[in-house]
Amino acid sequence: MKNSDLSEIPGKTSSFLPWGDLLSFFKDYHKFKQKKIKKYGELYKVRILNRVISTLHDKDAARYTLVEHDKDFNSKEAWDLILKDLFPNGLMLMDGEKHKHHRSIIAEAFKKQPLEGYLEMMKNIVPAHISTWNDPNPKMFPLLKEFTLEIALEVFFGINKNQQFTKINQAITDIVDASSALPIKLPFTAYGKGIKARKYLVTFFKELLPERKNNPKKDLFSILANAKNEDGNSLNDEQIVDHLIFILMAAHDTTASTQTSFCYFLAKYPDWQEKLRTEAQEFYKEHGDNFTVKDLRKLEQFGLALKETLRRYPPLVSIGRVATKNLEYKGYNIPEGTHVSVDIDQNHHNPEVWSCPASFDPERFSKERSEHTKCPYTYTPFGAGAHYCIGFAFAEMQIKYVISKLLLSHEWSVDPEYKMPVKPVPLQVPEDGLPVRMKKIKR
Q1: CATH of 89-316+375-440, one of 3.40.630.30, 3.30.70.20, 1.10.630.10, 1.10.10.10
Q2: In degrees, to the nearest 5, what angle opens at C-alpha 404 toward C-alphas 399 and 408?
Q3: Residue ranges in the chain modelled with pLDDT below 70
Q4: Bridge-partner residues for 20, per DSSP?
Q5: 316 within 8 A of 254, measured Cβ to Cβ
Q6: Which of 140, 164, 175, 227 is 20 to 30 A distant from 338 in Cα terms?
């Protein structure tokens, strides 16, 4: 696509540097974005590597792109450049009937009965793990990242921490790092290491696949290996492994990101920490360990605080698409083949939609205020439309359970003036790991 195809859209895309705006984009995404908005407005174009991308920041962008014109935009082409060698056949890299077909089979692993099975497995992991947290000055992100991986390996794959945990953890780290690196396929590059990590995981899961097919358990691996949709269709071995690797990455890193942000806000706002601790104490006094996924949804204050956490720090700050036909958006031509980026983070902080958007105010999601209903699809932490996150219910269940159990046994804090420094791409994570002061609660 030539730059002239987007001549109507503001922005400068010429550069002597072959990577265009890539380095500035990753170095300080928020500063880069605000500079562009100030200069060009809420719709502008940039160049990332060999792609000219139209970036949409206004409150109607997600609804237009992800919902109303979902069939007119392609997800696969938008993500191919950086993800096709790392996650081929991941749901993000599928569209149309193929996406619908694969999603209908994978959805079997996220229905009510499997979710209840996952929760029961978590009950054997979470309390025991949290009881070992004795460090008075931990960094929450690496702590939660390792914990989330341990849960994912056992619940999704039936693998305990002693089975090649370190190698798998390193492989996932390498793949995530590769997803934000220049796509240069050399062994010593971050991208090259990510491709090598993928090969390791493919071999590892293929060796386990026959057992999961013949002796299925309650883990996601077993369910997916034997899953059939309503039409009786199933996945072949290669597709099963490809989806497993993508699900492992998506469930692991996005959940760790959100749990860390949640812990930050509870440390920053001790009144909310105490409010949720009280709710958790009442919940477990009533249910003990005999509760279901549906019961966890009764943690209303948790629900409000989690929604506000996802508003302030959605794991993914933007979603990419490619136009499959000539379109028009608010007077601007969007030619076929145009790469479009919808800024989720900007929508979540739009003052036209949210009161005091930079504040932490969970009550904005209460029935009385319902700010998230003011303008549809300005709150989209899990995406929207056909590619809405298939694992959102699992993520919500895990986060509520982990944080509620943590609140029963620990309290943590940060200095009042502390503000978590966030690296927003590829996923929002704290640059300093989120150091906190933590102590066990005496019973």
Answers
A1: 1.10.630.10
A2: 150
A3: 1-5, 14-19, 161-163, 443
A4: 48
A5: yes
A6: 175
